[in-house]
Amino acid sequence: MSKPDFISWTQSRLGALYEAREDEPFASAFDAVFSPSCEVRVNHTPSTLDAFRDSVLSRKAANRGVTLSWDNLISTGDNPDEPSVVAGTLIIARSMMFLIRAAPAQRLTYINFSARVELLESSGVQADENDDRRRITSLYHTSVDKVPPIHFAKPHPVNQEERE
């Protein structure tokens, strides 16, 4: 089987990471996407891979479901055996377990990312089912959380004639 292109690879790997609902699938998805020595910058501040993992995990609390939307994805390379940079926008809509006005509360996370994807030849990196050893070796991750507006029902005036 051939290896997927960089954009498809990044979408499937990061998507699995953000869609994982339990700790074990999250941990395996995290290890399948990042190099152990990955350089991470969160909102242009240097960070560690462990701190980034904890940040992503903490946003999963009280989630009922997740919907991912990808936008403006670009890649600098076509050869899956050569390094490439994949950049784009990911919008994560999280439905929470608690209700606001009889509907699940939501939280939107807007992420702009730039990831350097490289083929790692080291024996410490497990290949996937396609014998793919690509991992993200550098990640620039800029994000902001927003709460979508709550739409209240607008009262409508009732004529005296309609009341009777």
Report on this model:
This protein has 164 residues and is an alpha+beta fold. The chain is 24% helix and 44% strand. It contains 4 helices and 6 strands. It has a 6-stranded mixed beta sheet. A hairpin with a 2-residue loop joins strand 1 and strand 2 (45-47). Helix 1 (6-19) packs antiparallel against helix 2 (23-33). The longest helix is centred in the first third of the chain and has 14 residues, at 6-19. The radius of gyration is 20 Å and the shape is elongated. The protein starts with 5 loop residues before the first helix and ends with a helix. The model has no long low-confidence stretch (mean pLDDT 82).
Main beta-sheet annotation:
6 strands, mixed
Low-confidence stretches: none
Shape: elongated
What percentage of amino acids are in beta strands? 35-45%
Distance between the termini: 73 Å
Q: Order of SSEs, N→C?
A: HHEEHEEEEH
Task: Give the strand order of the largest sheet, numbering strands 1, 2, ... along the chain.
Answer: 2-1-6-5-4-3
- Rg, please? 20 Å
Tell me how many strands there are.
Answer: 6
Helix content: 10-25%
**SS class:** alpha+beta
Mean pLDDT: 82
**Helical stretch count?**
4
